[in-house]
Design a protein that fits this description.
This protein has 347 residues and is α/β, with parallel strands linked by helices. The chain has one domain: Aldolase class I (TIM Barrel), CATH 3.20.20.70. It has 12 helices and 13 strands. The strands form 3 sheets. An 8-stranded parallel β-barrel has the order 3-4-7-8-9-10-12-13, surrounded by 4 helices. It has a 3-stranded antiparallel β-sheet with strand order 5-6-11. A hairpin with a 4-residue loop joins β5 and β6.
């Protein structure tokens, strides 16, 4: 399996570098390889289509948002065999994000801490990158576009940023994800509270209906939530999703808890913790959502997937699809095929 072999060669070099520098080296290299046709040697998962939110996903293993914030590397990432690619989070205006260093590996825990802060080139650049990709031009697969708010936008005006981004990305998206759960933008998670969430979802649903009429195409909206919600908060979120007829929910984002990594190097760095330590917390939220939602709307499971069995656990908890990010950093592209094969076998 050539992808596993190649990643085994590349990983020591990448892990010897600062995490963000490695990120900024690996993605352009992957994109260039795709343009040159070199990624054709990589193994791809077998077809295992799933219809979720009215969309046909070629396989149930997707890329989570955050890896490609500007949509600059869509074609390279698509070559790895994902059933969907989610890019972003994008904000209306370009912003640099938080000061560096802002990304840290915790290898002993198979984890990452980041406090990137929605660094991106703004929604106009984002849309231009999507338009330029072969993946979009040739309608090669499912493309999720993840939207957020600018750091300097007051929380009481957050809906304006989401609505602006929604209107800009709507024509290009297979689905749109509304990110209200990053811990790295001040007060953002406040939008998960009952009154703020109701107002935001009402505004988004109204805009979605108008945009569907305008573009003659209905684009589903999914809400991405945190793993740090308690059961009552999950129940409130589920109620709001049902009331406003939102199309899906992504569970979960990174955690602010450090319980699972206490004592490790970098454990006290500010930011969101992802990877293996968030696996159990994410599954608790997925199970709680499934109890509240039933089959009314689908759940996409994210958080700590480092094996095919981990992916299956998300499905068993109530998810219809899964997404990877940190596991991809630790295991490489072979993880995509392993997860897809496990889920295909269990159908």
């Amino acid at each position: 399996m050539i992808d596993k072999f190649l990643y085994a060669l590349a990983r020591p070099l990448l892990f010897s570098m600062d995490a963000e520098k490695a990120h900024n080296l690996a993605l352009p290299a992957l994109q260039k390889s795709a343009r040159l046709g070199l990624t054709k040697i990589l193994s791809r998962p077998a077809e295992d289509p799933r219809t979720v939110m009215g969309i046909r996903f070629p396989n149930p293993v997707g890329l989570a948002a955050g890896l490609d914030k500007d949509g600059a590397y869509i074609d390279g990432l698509a070559a790895l065999g994902f059933g969907s690619i989610e890019i972003g989070t994008v904000t209306p205006r370009a912003q640099p994000g938080n000061p560096k260093p802002r990304m840290f590996r915790l290898p002993a825990a198979q984890a990452i801490i980041n406090r990137m802060g929605f660094n991106n080139g703004g929604v106009e650049t984002f849309v231009a990158n999507v338009e330029a990709s072969r993946f979009y031009q040739e309608k090669q697969g499912v493309l999720g576009l993840n939207i957020g708010k600018n750091a300097d936008t007051p929380i009481e005006r957050a809906a304006d940023d989401y609505l602006h981004c929604l209107a800009k990305v709507y024509p290009y998206a297979s689905y749109v994800t509304v990110n209200i759960s990053s811990p790295n933008t001040k007060n953002l998670r406040q939008l998960q509270d009952a009154s703020e969430l109701d107002a935001l979802l009402a505004a988004l649903k109204d805009a979605q209906q108008r945009l569907a009429d305008q573009h003659k195409r209905y684009v589903p909206i999914a809400l991405k939530i945190a793993p740090d919600l308690d059961i009552d908060q999950v129940r409130n979120v589920a109620g709001a999703l049902l009331r406003h007829k939102i199309d899906g929910v992504i569970a979960t984002n990174t955690t602010i808890s450090r319980e699972a990594v206490s004592g490790l190097a970098h454990a006290e760095e500010a930011g969101g913790l992802s990877g293996a330590p968030v696996f159990a917390a994410s599954n608790i939220v997925i199970r709680a959502l499934k109890r509240e939602l039933g089959d009314a709307l689908p759940i996409i499971g994210v958080g700590g997937i480092l094996s095919g069995d981990d992916a299956q656990a998300k499905i068993d908890a109530g998810a219809s699809l899964v997404q990877l990010y940190s596991g991809l950093i630790y295991r490489g592209p072979a993880l995509i095929r392993e997860c897809a094969a496990t889920l295909r076998k269990s159908r």
